[in-house]
Known about the structure:
Blueprint: H1 2-5, H2 9-17, E1 45-49, H3 89-97, E2 103-104, H4 113-116, E3 119-121, H5 139-151, H6 157-161, E4 163-167, H7 172-179, H8 187-207, E5 212-216, H9 235-259, E6 264-267, H10 269-279, E7 298-305, E8 311-315, H11 332-351
Parallel strand pairs: 1-3, 1-4, 2-3, 4-5, 5-6
Antiparallel strand pairs: 7-8
Helix pairs in contact: 2-9, 3-11, 8-9, 10-11
Amino acid sequence: MDPLIKPFFSLLLFFSSTLLFGEINGVEGSNQHHQYHDHLYGPKKLFVFGDSYADTGNIKKSHAVSWRVPYGITFPGKPSGRFSDGRVSTDFLARLMRIKSPIPYLWKDYAGNKRLRYGMNFAYGGTGVFNTQSSSPNMTIQINLFEHLLGDDLYSPSDLSSSLALVSVAGNDYSNYLTLSRSIAELPAFIKQVVDQTEVNLRRIHAFGVEKIAVPSLQPLGCLPLYASLQGCNDTFNALVNYHNTLLQQVVAKLNNETNHSTFIIFDFYNAFLTIFKTKGENSGGSRRFETPLKPCCEGSCAHVDDKGEKKYRLCDDPKSAFFWDGLHPTQQGWESVYSVLGKNLTASLIKP
């Protein structure tokens, strides 16, 4: 893919320069001095839309590697549907809010009202703003599921006014675009389509009465182990990301200007990831150093075995020593470091009226 993208590297830079920029109980805190432990005293419910960075078990067990060993070995000690060795972004955000991680939509009928009061998670691994996988509902469909619950009076207007929505967009639309060998010349236009549809989604969620809506900036895709080398990140891929993030910043600024409030906020995953890569996790609030931050703990075809039952992957000795779990997803320790870097600025933005 890289040779196809390189001719458009300067084009993307031009576009960017012309613009203005188991147990699902939340996260246990082993180091109470971490910045992300400055708890949020704002929204009391969390509704989650998006992809594998936020999914806590929505895909059926027969459809995803996240339900296979060795996923979940750190938490809860067995596969739980999370695309990591343990907790993911949703869990750390819920911990910050001092609530339990919201129940996945798939399991809502097995949860009591007490469990549902913390919100609900509609995120599905592999999904995108548009269709990316036939088995995973895109963002529009996820929001439809949310709307249907509101129609059933499961959540009242007062519930929504004291809630936070996380809208996770981690790049599946772009990986799917390239996999389908669509025109590279039209990629900048497609990026704008993705961000434009994200704006539609944000407006729609806000129209339901949700008080706060957070959307992460796109992480540096060129630094994911699937695309990077141990020597460094793929700059051409990150140029795509910068264009996406510039457009996203414009959208959020426009929406906040219209509402006269800080209703819409961006979680700066892009710079949080890069900070950790640069410092190897030191001074980021994390408890571990990542000696080779671009090297995944689970190398190869993680969770896959051959016809003889032999593993098609290699596992590192300690997942806490790795930022990435597999070719795409951070470890639990990686996510802890991300939220530590975001720190007090994240807390302040969530409680700001």
